[in-house]
Amino acid sequence: MHDLKALRADPAAFDAALARRGLSPVGQQLVSEDEERRAALAALQEAQAARKTIAKEIGLLKRQNLDTAEIEAKAIALRDQIAGLEERANTIQTRIDDVLKALPNRLDASVPDGKSEDDNVVVHVRGEKRYLTFEPKQHFELGEALGLMDFPTAAKLSGTRFVVLRGALARLERTLGQFMLDIHTSEFGYSETSVPLLVNDDAMYGTDKLPKFAEDSFRTEDGRWLIPTAEVPLTASVMGDILPADALPIRMTALSQCFRSEAGSAGRDVRGMLRQHQFTKCELVSVVRPEDSEAEHERMTQAAETVLERLGITFRRMLLCAGDTGFGAAKTFDLEAWLPGQKAWREISSCSNTRDFQARRMNARYRAENGPAFVNTLNGSGLAVGRTMIAVMETYQNEDGSIDIPEVLRPYMGGLNRIG
Fold first, then answer.
1. Residues of the chain with pLDDT under 50
2. List of long-range contacts for 145-148, beta carbons under 8 Å, 24+ apart
3. Each residue of 147-161: pLDDT tens digit?
4. Does 262 show up as a binding residue in the annotation?
5. Is 237 annotated in some ligand binding site?
6. Annotated binding residue at 381?
């Protein structure tokens, strides 16, 4: 979670980091709790040493057939004292852990101050906004008119925030996922990985999804979780490991179904495919040495940008401000695609450097020169497939409601160059 040694050394700096996220100071409270815990542990060690000494004395007295009643009473008192000290140390440790579990990652110094997405910073824009000569339609209008995007049937089967895709749109979704995997594996060296869609508490906690985001995920009756993103099983695959230094960097990608309850998003993006309970995403995860994580963050974001560039989708890179950076991230770049139908920028990828935040939670280390050290983990969307399909549909729509297929996708689509 957080480095207690660093916190003890400078609680004011720890609180200043929390203040950037709009949180109240807790540094001195944690230091005081930790001092109390360490005092209890020191007293515990002394009591345990005293118990060992008394045990030897009792043995000696018994061998001499001498009375041991008085010293045995001391032993019993020490036993009760040890039990009390153990309970006290554990109770304090639990209090410390409960506080730390709820605290977000410390932000990178390069993250700008700000309270909301309105304070995010544009890093660069690629391409020109496409303004069509006719009134453009949104993706769901196009899909429904073509008879290939079916929300009523999905609602009959599963409720709201689901969709049934048919025909060429179903193939386009599959094509986009394959296209992304091919770029990431062949050009950026990510290893394609097929992961479980159900994970345990440890995997969710280690990747900072528990306890804070429990309500955003679906849990099965046997206590497992449907993954909100393949980041969870990919990153947690190194949970508890001490990796050889020459094994790093590890780069993994997975195309998977993802599941989110979308708690708290009632009324947002109700129509269409932008915010669904089930969606497909191509995930990127890197496990690296701490000194390599900043360069890896840039490399990962460029991999995601490459997909958009090849598809001819206009996008911009945003550096998220302090108030908009996610709980587990030290620094995040969002990629936002321009959607002509909505006439708006919409997030299509988020690439985050978590530094050692997740590694501490899941105890993932590597053999550094001076002994085991925590790795750094990074994750990013490379890309969200459904949102990429939305961008393709709205960008390449025609006045008659048909949709041109980007040239790079046509070989994947069996030579089809237009839907409709």
1. none
2. 145/401, 146/401, 146/403, 146/419, 146/420, 148/419
3. 999 999 999 999 999
4. yes
5. no
6. yes
